[in-house]
Design a protein that fits this description.
The protein has strands at about 5, 10-15, 20-25, 35-40, 45-50, 55-60, 65-70, 75-80, 90-100, 120, 125-129. With about 130 residues, it is an all-beta fold.
Length: about 130
């Protein structure tokens, strides 16, 4: 069965940095896409960044230039480097993974929640002013 592990959340002051990690395991195929979403209290979950199997990346406009996703050396591992953090970045951050039944290249809408079929439990990020 698929298991997703997230880590790296914490509390920082405005302008600080954090690095989130996500590792997915348990699938016979490699991930077609992995991404990061976030949800703040009273708000809907929104896409932050995503990367597909070929390394193509999408970022939300609100984090572009401040956040960076990168692929880890381990299979199905994705990092989210967050710099210049703002209080409005405070949210629960979730790792999302798309596994397909076949090994093929599918081009997903990387910031859309419906594209993913597995989710982590989330890691809290709190940014104080």
């Amino acid at each position: 069965q698929v298991h997703i592990v997230e880590s790296g959340g914490g509390s920082v002051q405005s302008g600080g940095s954090l690095r989130l990690s996500c590792t997915a395991s348990g699938s016979t195929n490699t991930a077609a896409c992995m991404g990061w979403f976030r949800q703040a209290p009273g708000k809907e979950r929104e896409g932050v960044a995503g990367m597909d199997k070929k390394g193509f990346i999408e970022y939300s406009e609100s984090v572009k230039g401040r956040f960076t996703v990168s692929q880890g050396d381990a299979k199905d591992t994705l990092y989210l480097q967050m710099d210049s953090l703002k209080p409005e970045d405070t949210a629960m951050y979730y790792c999302a993974v798309l596994y397909l039944s076949e090994e093929l290249y599918y081009i997903p809408h990387k910031l859309e929640e419906y594209e993913y079929n597995y989710w982590g439990q989330g890691t809290q990020v709190t940014v104080s002013s």
